[in-house]
Amino acid sequence: MGRIAGLEGCDAHLTERAERLAERIRSQRFHIAVLGEFKRGKSTLVNALIGKSVLPSGSLPLTSVATEVHIGPPHVAVIFDDGREIAIGPEAIKRYATEEGNPSNHLGVRRVEVGVDTSFGVGGLVLVDTPGVASIHEHNTAAAHDALLDSDAAVVVLSADSPLSESERELLRQLHERESQVFLVINKADHLSRHDLDQVRRFVAGQVSRIFGTTIEPYCVSAKAALERLPGRSPEVASEFRSFREHLDRFVRSDLDGARRSAAIGELRRLAGDLATSLQIEEAALAMDLQTLTDRLDRFGSAAIEGHRLLAEDRMVLDHEVGQLSTSIGRELAEGGARAAQAAAPRLAAMASELQVRHLDTGLRECIEQLVTEGFDPVWRAAQSHAEHEWNDLAERFAQRIENRVAKLRAIADRLFDVQLVAPHVSGVAGQRQRFSYLFLHVEGPNAVIGRIARIALPPALVRRRGLQRAQRKLVEEFDKHAGRARYDLTERLRSAEGTFVRERVLEFEEVQISISAAASRAKEAVDLAVDLREERRRFMDDSKEIIEEVAGL
Question: For residues 422 and 372, which has the higher predicted lDDT (pLDDT)?
C-alpha cells in the first residue's frame, strides 16, 4: 500500500483521493465522524466520550468547521484552505471553529485539530466533530459531507425530542452506501419518560432497519449529564451512555486494525478500477495525432450529452412508474382494509355481547385493536409482497436501461479510442425493509363524562346497542387509518429505494464519462510533448499498472 501516493500523473480527483488515503495509512489514523443535524449535542457527546470539555458547545448551531479530536499528545492547531497551519491555545478554538467566531467560515479554515490525552480509545484515533447537516448555513452541510467522505466509521447523533428527519435518513443512506460501521445515539433521552423513550427507540430502530437491511440498536443517552458526571433524571440513560462508550472503545481497541484495513482496501480497489479505465484511454489516445484525438474527443462529448438526455428520460419514466405503483398499492390497501372491516363486524358484535356494561368502552377498544391487528395483517403482508415484486421489476428494467446507456458510452469509447474497456459489475436491487407497527390512540372527547353518566341512567340494552354502533364505526375508521398509514409507509419505502437506486446507477454513468473524458483530455495535452517527456509519461503508466496488479492481489 506504500505506493498508492504515486499517482501524481492522474487527474486531480484521483490524485486527491490517493493522497488522503496515503496520509491516513502513513499516520495510522482512523477517523470516526460524529454526524447529525445541528443542536443534536454532537460536541457535547465528543466531550463526554473523552471526559473533558474541550470542544465549544451550546444551544445555537455552533460548529462551523470540522474539528478533529486526536487521541494523543495535547496540542491545538488550525489548518487553513491555503495550506497554512498555526498553533493556538484551547481557549481560541471558538475563534476558528464556531459560527459565532468564524461566521460562514470567512477565515477559510479547513479544520481544527485538537490533541487530547485521555483514557478513551487508542493513539491514531480521530473523533471528528462535524457541523450540522441541514443547517441554515450551507457551508456547514458541505463541511459535514466532506467529513463523512473521509470517515472510516460514524456515530450518528439523533435527538429524543425530534428523532429522524429526512436529512438524517439521507445521511444514514449515504453511510449505508459506503458500507460504514455505524453507531446510533439518541441524545437528550432524559427529556422523555421511559414509556415515550421506548416508543422513540422502537421507531428509530425500525426506520434504520429499513435503510441498512439489518438491526442497529440505538443507545439512548444524555451527553450533558454524562459530561457533568450527574446521575440525570434516569439511571437507565446513564447506564446506556456507559454501554455506548464501552462499545465504541471496545470497537476501537479490538476491531480498529481490521476496520482500518477493510476501509483502506475498499478505497484502494475503487481507485484502482478508476485508474485502469483512465490508463487504457490515455494510452490509446497518446498514439493518435492531435487532430484525430480532438475530433474523437468531441464526438465522445456529444455522445455523453445525448446519454445524459436519455438518462433524464429514463429517470422520468421510473418516477412515473413508481407513482403509479404507489397509487395501485394504496388502492389495494384501502379495498383490503374495507373488506377486512366488513368481515370483522359480526365478530365485534359477538364479542360485545359478552362484555359487562360497566366495562363496555374499555372492552370494545380492546376488541377493536385485536380485530384490526388480526384482520389487517394479511392485507399488509399481501401489499408488501406486491410492492416488493413490482418494485423489483421496475428496478430491473431501469437498471437494464442504465446498463445499456453505460455500455453504449463505453462502446463509443472503445470504437473511438481503439480499446476494450472492462464492463463494471452492476449490483442487484437492494431491498428496503421495514417493520410495520400498529398505532391505536384513544382521546376522550368533551362528551366523555356525559357518556359515563348515560351508561348509569339508561337501560343496559340501550347502552350496549349504542356502544356497539360507535364501536362499529370506530372499527371501520381504524381499518381505514391503518390502510392509510401502510400506504404512506410503503410509498416512502418505494421512494427511498428509488432514490438510492437511481443515485447508484446515475453515478455509474457519470464516473464512466468523467474517467474517459479526463483521460483523453490528458492525452491531448501530452500529444505535443517532447519525445522524452512522452516516454516519461509511459513509464508512469507502466508503474500505475503495477499498482493496479498489487491492489488486485489484496
Answer: 372
Q: Which helix (H) or strand (E) holds 492?
A: helix 460-526
Residue with cell 499517482: 7
The neighbour count for residue 132, using CB atoms within 10 Å, is 24
pLDDT at 6: 42
Q: In what order do the strands lie in the sheet with 153-159?
A: 85-87, 75-80, 109-116, 67-71, 125-129, 30-35, 153-159, 181-187, 219-220
Confidence label for 158 from pLDDT (cuts 50, 70 and 90): very high
346 has a pLDDT exceeding 50: yes
Higher pLDDT, residue 500 or 404: 404
pLDDT category of residue 237 using cuts at 50, 70 and 90: confident
Alpha helices (H) in 150-192, listed in sequence order: 166-177
Q: 420 forms bridges with which residues in the sheet? A: none
| pLDDT for residue 554 | 57
Q: Dihedral angle at the C-alpha atoms of 291, 293, 297, 300, nearest 10 degrees?
A: 110
3-class secondary-structure state, position 31: strand
Check: CB of residue 224 under 8 Å from CB of residue 41: yes
Q: What distance in Å separates the CA atoms of residue 68 and residue 80, rounded to the nearest whole number?
A: 14
All three cell numbers of 159: 435527538
DSSP 350-388: HHHTTS-GGGHHHHHHHHHHHHHHHHHHHHHHHHHHHHH
**Contacting residues for 221 by C-beta, under 8 A, at least 6 apart:** 45, 185, 186, 187, 189, 237, 240, 241, 244
Q: Half-sphere exposure of 449 toward its Cβ, with a 13 Å CA cutoff? A: 1
Q: What is the CA radius of gyration of the chain?
A: 30
CB 191 within 8 A of CB 225: no
Question: How far is 308 from 509, CA to CA, in rounded Å?
Answer: 9
HEC string for 286-339 = HCCCHHHHHHHHHHHHHHHHHHHHHHHHHHHHHHHHHHHHHHHHHHHHHHHHHH
As given in the structure block, the three cell numbers for residue 358 are 360497566
DSSP character string of 433-469? -------------TTHHHHHHHHHHS-HHHHHHHHHH
Averaged pLDDT for residues 8-31: 65
| Complete domains list, the chain, with CATH | 29-274 (3.40.50.300), 291-421+434-527 (no CATH)
pLDDT value at residue 526: 62
